[in-house]
Amino acid sequence: MKTETMRAFLVTGTRQADVANVPVPSAASDEVLLRVLACGLCKTDAKIFMSGHRDLLLPRIPGHELVGMDLQSGRRYAVFPGKTCGVCSYCNAGAQNLCPSVEIFGFSREGGLAEKIAVPKSSLIPLAPDISPELATLAEPLGCCVNAFSQMALPPRTDILIFGAGVMGLLLAFAAHKMNLCPVLCDIDPDRIKTSRAFLQPFSIPSFLRKDISYPVSAAITATSAPDAAEDALSLLKPGGAYFHFSGIGHRGNLSGKSFDQIHYKQLKVCGAYGCAKIHMETALKWIASSPDELSRLLKTRFSLSRIPEILPILWQGSGYRHIVQP
């Protein structure tokens, strides 16, 4: 019997990948087979290709920001990008992103940069008819922002400084606005600041060059892996302020002891945020439905699987907004 195949973007090693014909996955009894309608391509996907990732198992089909259609029912779904055990204390608390047995789509389980994907039924989030598949790919990254601000409740109207004016910085600013906070965005790149203003203006969110901000702030969050941003955030916080560590630093450098002492001497509140849980994506989809025109500004280009190799190096350099793959 002939094996049914599909096209997929398959990473086999560092900077080694190709669009290949691979077997169509078979869905287990607790899964459904989806046709991928759209899959967001982000800097994490570029990292997987360009330098590898801590959670990556090769060979692998990347893609964790996906939307698909059930081939049997025709229903459309956003997909929480993980298969969890469902019984541990984290899963029972609704923190599936911390499940020690989680299989993450695009890392330890095949992702959405393919024509079809087998998805656990527990990962499916029904998509409202008025939300496009392309826009719904923002549910996962925006869900990560919801998770971050859910870790530490800030009083309404708290001022919060966001470091980094890339897509995640803009989504954090949007999320802070939706949570009745007072976000301000900063970046070291004048072009990114200029570009960010078209997205931020409808929400009356200001943005500045980092060098122009010297006043103390009540809360800060990093949407960049640059160690300097974390150090600046800690130094600008008021005593008793809140620091959210949203982007990992990785191998780019280390925080100085002086920065850590800021936590001690100013009695700062510190929390981390990693990924998101399904409930955060559900909230994100509601927010997307409330501002579809504004959020669509973040969607840069739409292209097929064959163009992924040329787009990933651009993403790796931090250029562009969200790119959408339509297999």
Description:
With 327 residues, the protein is α/β, with parallel strands linked by helices. It has 11 helices and 17 strands. It folds into 2 domains: 5-142 and 276-325, Medium-chain alcohol dehydrogenases, catalytic domain (Quinone Oxidoreductase, Chain A, domain 1), CATH 3.90.180.10; 152-272, Rossmann fold (3-Layer(aba) Sandwich). Strands 3, 4, 5, 8, 9, 16 and 17 form a 7-stranded mixed β-sheet that branches. Strands 12-11-10-13-14-15 form a 6-stranded parallel β-sheet. A two-stranded antiparallel ribbon has the order 1-2. Helix 8 (257-265) links the parallel strand 14 (237-245) and strand 15. Helix 4 crosses helix 9 (278-290).
Topology:
Elements: E1 5-13, E2 16-23, E3 31-41, H1 43-50, E4 65-70, E5 76-79, E6 82-83, H2 89-92, E7 103-104, E8 116-120, E9 124-126, H3 133-136, H4 139-150, E10 159-163, H5 167-178, E11 182-187, H6 190-200, E12 207-209, E13 217-222, H7 227-236, E14 237-245, H8 257-265, E15 269-272, H9 278-290, H10 292-295, E16 299-303, H11 308-316, E17 322-325
